[in-house]
Design goal:
Blueprint lengths: L1 H23 L48 E3 L17 E3 L21 E3 L23 E3 L18 E3 L21 E3 L23 E3 L18 E3 L21 E3 L20 E3 L17 E3 L10 H4 L13 E3 L13 H4 L5 E3 L2 E2 L7 E2 L4 E3 L4 H16 L2 H8 L7
Length: about 425
């Protein structure tokens, strides 16, 4: 009985350690801190793949580290590796980022069955150096990081189990017709900072991704809005392209959009009801060529239209009717670097009773030098503590350089 009791205690302790690794590990190490309004992504510990029992100590590649507290994870990052070591069959999380890996052969993955996350970011991997089908056979793979490599093409085929794929900062210039086939469980696809142009849309590559919720296409060479996006989409990032027009009724197919980011494009005119979307919370059209405002939906909370050519903000265009039973939710507007000569009409506070901050900043009224309105920042409904915090934040904002802003805007954070 004594031996059985000791074995039972050891088994319970091991199960607790396995569960705790999912509670404690931070999956956001690739992109730094999260904005407050964005929710990080974690694996659900209740959905982990069942792993066969194995004795301690767990098997681990000699080049890597497998902490006893996280027996299903193998850490091979930041070790100047040029090749992928053999991977034990029980591993579920594999971290190989920040190395000098150039190829992904099938050999190291021969016995891999349960892996759910692979991080190969910040390496030197090229498309033709990935063995065909090496990822496709990993039937439990949920998340794959390949950003900051040298991929020229989309790394297909991929397993149908995949939910999140990060391919930012590569050299991808094309998406073949079957590249995204079968990825019915994909919820997040990041293709920012590649070489994609409008030709990639000819075969409507995203149309069959029925569960896609976030699509990042920022920092590419797009000139038109991507057609045939799935209606499931919640977050769309198109910053830093050359898009000049949004077709009328474009968003009728995308009723669930929550956040739309199109800063640093060439937009000049917005059709009046373009953003008549029931769930839109954040709209960023900063640094375009807009001369007039447009209708905004009642759901919208944050509006960014800085860096345009707006001379007057017509509140009645933004808010044509008042409905006391269904008030506008707008709380923040950023309108700096436009051509305003006077603050927004006080009628705005009838239309937007929840508004807390209007950031006027500097206005580009004259070519020679920017000017300030008398009220660079308007705030209301702030407690003394909140007001002081806002003042401190504003002072810090004034100390930032233009390079800081460019760096901040250069890449869209992949996690909303």
């Amino acid at each position: 009985m004594g031996i059985l009791r000791q074995l039972l205690i050891l088994h319970v302790l091991w199960a607790a350690l396995v569960f705790c690794q999912y509670e404690d590990y931070d999956f956001e190490d690739e992109y730094g801190g999260e904005p407050d309004h964005q929710l990080p992504y974690y694996f659900n510990p209740n959905s982990q793949v069942e792993v066969p029992h194995f004795p301690f100590p767990v098997e681990c590649a000699k080049e890597c580290f497998c902490p006893p507290a996280f027996p299903l994870s193998m850490y091979c990052d930041h070790r100047m590796l040029k090749t992928i070591p053999n991977i034990p069959s029980h591993v579920q999380q594999l971290y190989l980022q920040n190395n000098n890996i150039e190829a992904v052969p099938a050999g190291p993955f021969t016995n891999v069955t349960f892996v759910r996350e692979i991080n190969l970011s910040y390496n030197k991997i090229k498309f033709h150096m990935i063995d065909h089908g090496v990822f496709a056979k990993l039937s439990n793979l949920v998340q794959l990081h390949l950003q900051h490599n040298e991929l020229e093409e989309f790394p297909f085929p991929l397993p149908s189990s995949l939910e999140r794929l990060l391919l930012g900062f590569n050299k991808i210039s094309q998406l073949s017709g079957n590249a995204l086939e079968g990825l019915t469980n994909m919820t997040m696809l990041d293709l920012c900072s590649n070489l994609l142009d409008d030709s990639v849309f000819k075969e409507k590559p995203f149309s069959n991704m029925k569960n896609l919720m976030q699509l990042n296409l920022c920092n590419n060479k797009l000139q038109t809005m991507p057609p045939e996006l799935p209606s499931s989409l919640r977050h769309l990032s198109l910053e830093n392209n050359s898009i000049s027009h949004i077709p009328e009724n474009y968003f009728r197919r995308l009723p669930h959009i929550i956040a739309l980011r199109m800063s640093h494009n060439n937009l000049q005119n917005i059709p009046h009801n373009t953003f008549n979307l029931p769930n839109l919370l954040e709209l960023n059209l900063g640094h375009n060529k807009l001369k007039q405002v447009f209708y905004i939906p009642r759901s919208l909370q944050h509006l960014y239209i800085e860096g345009n050519e707006i001379e007057n903000i017509n509140v009645t265009v933004m808010c044509p009717t008042l409905d006391p039973l269904n008030i506008n939710q707008l709380t923040y507007i950023r309108v700096d670097q436009n051509k305003l000569t006077s603050p927004i009409s006080s009628y705005a506070f009838f239309c937007f009773p929840l508004i807390r901050t209007i950031y006027y900043g500097e206005q580009n009224v004259t070519v020679s030098r920017p000017t300030r309105l008398r009220t660079p920042v308007f705030r209301r409904f702030l407690t003394p503590e909140e007001f002081q915090e806002a003042e401190d934040n504003h002072e810090m904002l004034n100390q930032e350089t233009e390079e800081d802003h460019e760096e901040e805007d250069s890449y869209f954070h992949p996690y909303y």
